[in-house]
Design a protein that fits this description.
The structure holds two protein chains of two kinds. Chain A is an all-alpha fold. Chain A is 39% helix and 2% strand. Chain A folds into four domains: 1-47; 51-113, Orthogonal Bundle (Cytochrome C Oxidase, Chain D), CATH 1.10.442; 116-144; 147-185, no CATH class. Chain A has a two-stranded antiparallel ribbon with strand order 1-2. The chains are: A mainly alpha, B mainly alpha. The interface between A and B is medium-sized, with 29 and 31 residues.
Chain lengths: 185, 138
């Protein structure tokens, strides 16, 4: 037998297998009963019993292990009885109802995508944009001044020194300076 | 010199041509017998034709068949649809037709052919196609 108790919630309902108890103590008197109850937690969520076959919508498994609707109402039971006769007697709506009893989603519904990707992409861009704003604020208010060697005047002095030093004279920097005319080529 | 090399080359060519006709046992293929398409089809037709097929066996057979890299022949599907009839399961019959259409993928001509071949069976058993019921699109 299995017993499942809610950790925190006193209103948790216990899953009991009465047959074990009853068979042990009242052998001949009672027929065995099995009570399957959903564990009821405070968050009001149904816990699926994973120890029994479940229904699933899969393209590669056309016939699921169990039908989608297990507990049939009386009209649905009548329809199931009618299904045992000739199917030519069934109307289109009845056939559709029978299909929907056994299957939750048709193949077309399984294959259809959703527009969720737009939401995801939009969310990504929003957060990227927000991050950009934060980075901008940081650049303005957190970073200190840039070194003085990056000022126009300082760069001009550095460039002149590089030309005087003949930096990369063959193919590179000084190669592009015309030493006769004292200007860039 | 050059002509001697050419003659040698031609000599090796003729020798390798003889080697091409060597028996296939030289190659490293499995010696298992390969099932022909007809054997595969008849095996599956026999599977679904079992008179006392139960629901589990129908589901197992169908799910396995759809798992293969092929679209089942109409005769296999006919046998499966008749098995659905024996088990009083119209929903599974319609689902099988949907699965065949899905299985054909980009080859749009397969499904109409299968339906055309199955039309007598569909009419006899009273199975509507997904198109007739409107579930072929959302």
């Amino acid at each position: 037998q299995h017993t499942l108790e809610g950790n925190r919630d006193h209103t948790a309902v216990i899953h009991i297998c009465l047959s074990i108890y009853l068979d042990r103590y009242f052998q001949t008197l009672y027929s065995s009963l099995t009570v399957v109850v959903l564990v009821h937690l405070s968050s009001d969520v149904d816990v699926i019993d994973c120890s029994v076959p479940q229904y699933n919508n899969r393209l590669d498994t056309p016939l699921p292990d169990v039908p989608f609707v297990r507990n049939l109402s009386s009209e649905q039971k009548k329809l199931k009885e009618k299904e045992k006769g000739s199917w030519t007697q069934l109307t289109k709506e009845e056939k559709l109802a029978l299909y929907r009893l056994t299957h939750e989603l048709s193949y077309a519904e399984m294959r259809q995508g959703s527009k969720e990707w737009m939401t995801v992409l939009g969310g990504v861009f929003i957060f990227l944009g927000f991050t950009g704003l934060l980075v901008w604020w940081q650049r303005v208010y957190v970073y200190g001044d840039v070194p003085h060697t990056l000022s126009q005047e300082s760069v001009a002095q550095q460039t002149q020194r590089m030309i005087d030093m003949r930096v990369n004279p063959v193919h590179g920097f000084s190669n592009k300076w015309d030493y006769e005319k004292k200007q860039w080529k | 010199m050059i002509s001697a090399a050419v003659m040698r080359g031609i000599g090796t060519l003729t020798r390798t041509r003889a080697a091409f006709t060597a028996p296939l046992a030289v190659r490293c293929y499995s010696h298992a017998k390969v099932e022909t398409d007809e054997e595969f089809d008849s095996r599956w037709v026999t599977y679904f034709s079992k008179p006392d097929l139960d629901t589990w066996e129908l589901r197992k057979g169908m799910n396995t068949l759809i798992g293969y890299d092929l679209v089942p022949e109409p005769k296999i599907l006919d046998s499966a649809l008749r098995a659905c009839r024996r088990l009083n399961d119209l929903a599974s019959a319609i689902r099988i037709l949907e699965a065949v259409k899905d299985k054909s993928g980009p080859h749009k001509e397969i499904y109409p052919y299968v339906i055309q071949e199955l039309r007598p069976t569909l009419q006899e058993l009273g199975i509507s196609t997904p198109e007739e019921l409107g579930i072929h699109k959302v």
